[in-house]
Amino acid sequence: MEEKIRLDNISTHYTFKIFKSFDNNPLSLKALEVITKSLKELYRFFEPAFFTGNFFLYKHFNDEFLYSKTTGELLYDRNILINKTAGDFAIQIFETGETYIWYNIDKTKIYEAENTLTYHFTSDQDSYIAKGSEIKVASEGKGSNYAPYFVNLSKALIAFKHERVFRSTCPTFRKSWNDPKYIAFAGEGSGNNAPEKYIQESLHEFLRTQESLRGIAFECSREHNFDSDKPKPVDVRMLWREANRHALIEIKYTGLVINKNSGKSRFHPDQATFDDGYFQVKGYYDSALKDHPTTIAKALLVVIDGRRSKVNKSTQTVNEVDGMFYKDVEVEISADKRYYQDNPAFEKPIRMFAAPITN
After folding, report:
1. Could you read off the pLDDT of 147-186 as tens digits, one per residue?
2. Closest among 132, 140, 84 to 108, alpha carbons compared
3. What is this structure's pTM?
4. Cα–Cα distance between 59 and 281 in angstroms, integer?
5. Helix axes 149-160, 196-208, angle to 10 degrees
6. Which end of the chain has less Cβ packing within 10 Å, N or C?
7. Boundaries of domain holding 343
8. What is the number of structural domains in the chain?
9. Residue 94 neighbours by CB distance under 10 Å
10. What dihedral angle (degrees, nearest 10) is formed by the CA atoms of 151, 155, 158, 163?
11. 331 belongs to a structural domain
């Protein structure tokens, strides 16, 4: 039975399907190997999760041109792909290492090609075209399996939300609270950056230990400054040097705050927090484009939600209804701050509700 399951898994794998489509021709596997290696290089300059068109990368078994050479361009500078987010284009790879690119192509030629294996990316789906048949590769739901960096970061942030924030299981994160029931955040006065510094440190520690982010060497740093004219640094920066990517993460919080020294309280607002935080991260993003124009950037806002209903600085305990009142209450940001609607490098703000210990 176990042997049959293994064989079934092999027979449904895209590699096996490609091989069978070309009547077990070993040149198909050689073409697949060449395409796979080329994708890793090309995706250093092109983020598929930001792309809405059709991208084809193909290898002819005998290195014959599929489209006219005169209508294509020798792709000697891959930086021209950096800002590519739409349209249809095709790239052909040759044994010599040369690559040619064509724009606004006739896609029927690719589907009719006999001795050509083609990789196709569209609508967050990787697939291969083999003798007219499209063979899909199992999808992660966003972007490409060959460039998983930003997708894996989003997954890591969701894991942080559920594993560390929701029940305040991280010792560093717990330092952000004023009380053992997690009712109010703890402020430490002007210039101490509390409770943000503990939230930043907790996220930084978590991201540095995530196996899903270790597919390629990365650096995770706190308080990274992009613009010398604006000395306020972004809270967390993720850098995949070999993959030519970085992510800028700004962290905010909303809820009741009690100053540990003075005992004074204030409510850190919700919509203003989201609006200001998103505007702030856009500033970092714009500075990053200016300082690193050929590095692919992603901008994210993380908001820790510590709102409770009917609490003040004297509240010692909270019941389930009031404590969890805002658990599923999203905060809408202002229309003019919804950068994610026009720019794929931005994600919707990520709200992470931190639950209190209720009666």
Report:
1. 999 999 999 999 999 999 999 999 999 999 999 999 999 9
2. 132
3. 0.89
4. 41
5. 130
6. N
7. 149-353
8. 2
9. 14
10. -160
11. yes
